[in-house]
Amino acid sequence: MAIVVRLDVMLARRKVRSKDLAAYVGITEANLSLLKSGRVKGVRFETLDRICAFLDCQPGDILEYVPDGSEPV
Amino acid sequence: MTFAPMLARSARRLRVATWIALIVSIVIALYAAGTGLGLVGGPDAVRVTDGGQPLGRTSSMVAAISLLPFAAGLLRLIRMLRRIERGEVFTSGTIADLRGFTLLILISALLSILLPPALAIANALGGGPRRIELVFDSGDFFALLVSALLFLVARLFGEAQRLADDVSQIV
């Protein structure tokens, strides 16, 4: 998949626990874990909005486009 | 009472009724096959005719053959109902069983329509009477239409289940 989820990086930068973010966004920890590992088919704008609000970041800080075959930055 | 227990109870009742229908259809199929092979005497269990003239023992074989996919379809229906009782309403397994059931019923309906004329033609080619009369019962076509419609509904359910799976993977 060309879209890489950088949520774990942002969580580490902000020193936020997954549990707190999941509670704020209103999704289960299991779903957040799936999102962090990129094993989801999509992210709702509503979810993205809540994540960005909690982590004080932009969607581009969480999602990165990496063309297939090239190494992620 | 909430919807889920009511659905489970209805599924259980229908499953019991389907078991009875399955046993009856197997008995009829065995009897028809028995008379077709000359193992069981007496009149044909189910008569299939062409133009009002009974085909004789072959009619029993037609009935037996067309009942086979019907019985297999009932088995798939029983499996589907058992899944619904367990609360698996829109799972891939339930949809697969529904699709299998409708497909087998469709095959059974097709066989009951196509086998008698096919046998009449084969009989004529094999030295039987040269005149072939092909008579189709409107009831058979109605059964075929309903089976085809059920099959289409099952396909639609399959698509709905795929979409539900997709949605469940969007967080």
What does this structure look like?
The complex is a heterodimer of chains A (73) and B (171). Helices cover 53% and strands 8% of the residues of chain A. With 73 residues, chain A is mainly alpha-helical. In chain A, strands 1-2 form a two-stranded antiparallel sheet. Chain B is an all-alpha fold and 171 residues long. Chain B has one domain (3-170). In chain B, a hairpin with a 2-residue loop joins strand 1 (49-50) and strand 2. The model of chain B is unreliable at 48-55 (pLDDT under 50). The chains are: A mainly alpha (73), B mainly alpha (171). The interface between A and B is small, with 11 and 4 residues.
The string of secondary-structure elements of chain B, in order, is HEEHHH
Shape of chain B: elongated
Largest sheet features of chain A: 2 strands, antiparallel
Q: Roughly how many Å apart are the termini of chain B?
A: 32 Å
Report the count of strand segments of chain B: 2
Q: Which structural class is indicated by helix and strand composition of chain A? A: mainly alpha
**What share of the residues of chain A does DSSP label as strand, in percent?**
5-15%
Poorly predicted regions of chain B: 48-55
Identify the strand order in the major beta sheet of chain A.
1-2
Greatest interface (CB-CB under 8 A), with counts per chain = A-B, 11 and 4 residues
Q: Give the spatial strand order of the biggest sheet of chain B.
A: 1-2
Amount of helix of chain A: 40-55%
Integer average pLDDT of chain B: 82
Structural class of chain B: mainly alpha
Low-confidence stretches of chain A: none
Highlighted features:
heterodimer; A: 73 residues; mainly alpha; two-stranded antiparallel sheet; 5 helices; 53% helix; 8% strand; globular; B: 171 residues; 4 helices; 75% helix; elongated
In short:
The complex is a heterodimer of chains A (73) and B (171). With 73 residues, chain A is mainly alpha-helical. In chain A, 53% of the residues lie in helices and 8% in strands.
